[in-house]
Amino acid sequence: MTFAAKLSKIYPFGFLRSHPSKTHAIPASFIQASQCVEEERAPHYNPRHFYPMQLHAVIANRYQVAAKLGWGTSSTVWLARDLYQWRWLPSRYVAIKVNANNYTSKECAQKELRITQRITQANTADEGRYFVRTLLDSFDLPGPHGNHICMVFDPLYEPLWMLKQRFQGGVLPPNVLSAVIRMVVMGLHYLHTQCHVIHTDLKSDNILMAFRDHSVLDGVVRDEIEDPLPQKISDDRTIYLSRNDFGFQASNLGRPVITDFGLSVCGDKAPHNHPIQPNGFRAPEVIIGASWDYSVDIWNLGALIWELLCGTGPFDYSTSSSDSTYSEEKHLASIISLIGPPARGYARTRKSKFAIF
């Protein structure tokens, strides 16, 4: 059965939808087998856990994979063309996050999917929803070693950490920062009041600028065909390099969008007290091991604003949660030296592990 015939059975008027492009890609150069690249550099990497994606393949009977956008410790992200788009309209592109299928990663992916669905469905009329990444589609992708949870989103331009590097001194000018943060606050308000979700991990990696004009992605797809990046061929898969620098055109820079809800929690459930947030951005109640709520995102945002404006955060600590030099005591001392001591009995009333106040 042809793809058009399959599509017509799945979707009304399928014969009027886009067809997979017939690619005649120029052969790519090869990366040495001994060199670790992309997701292979993730801690505890196991190829059985990652889906062996192939460029130009059609997945879920709908999306033709066009380029790799990025990778993480438990997922890869791909640019794909949506074949449900009408044939006479410009190509419509999506970003597909393909999660690893080992137990821990799959459990986290299921949780992230539930939270993202909650965010997507909460209140479509709220203006703050425009500044939060919402789900277009989701599906299970069968692989040689089990199913992979896939989430489909609109592609985004670049994260705030990359945007700030484009300005003098590697910081956002106050007028740019003011506009960006105003919209981020609207997105946070939507998360807190409409979705009842606490993000817990606000950093410049997790706020991305949107495209105003998605036609730039046509060039990404064309480049991958005409000038492919080097590839690493192994026994059962090809490891591709990511295309995630789209160049900079101020006219194509859209709104900021809060992303990555893998560590988010529901704020309307039992009190939370587990460790969260990048080290330098931790709220006081998180540092002392007390219960916390929506306010931790506001503290986190304040520290992020400082970093975007000044180049470094207000507290001289790495944002990495694995930083062995991080000290809770020193962090608390830094906070007290900057804004003064907490109210008397603060730690005791919050059932803190510290008894210093």
UniProtKB/TrEMBL annotation:
The keyword ATP-binding applies. One of its GO terms (biological process) is spliceosomal complex assembly. Keywords: ATP-binding, Kinase, Nucleotide-binding, Serine/threonine-protein kinase, Transferase. SUPFAM superfamilies: Protein kinase-like (PK-like). Its EC number is 2.7.11.1. The keyword ATP-binding applies. InterPro entries: Kinase-like_dom_sf, Prot_kinase_dom, Protein_kinase_ATP_BS, Ser/Thr_kinase_AS, SRPK. This is non-specific serine/threonine protein kinase. The lineage of its organism: Eukaryota, Fungi, Dikarya, Ascomycota, Pezizomycotina.
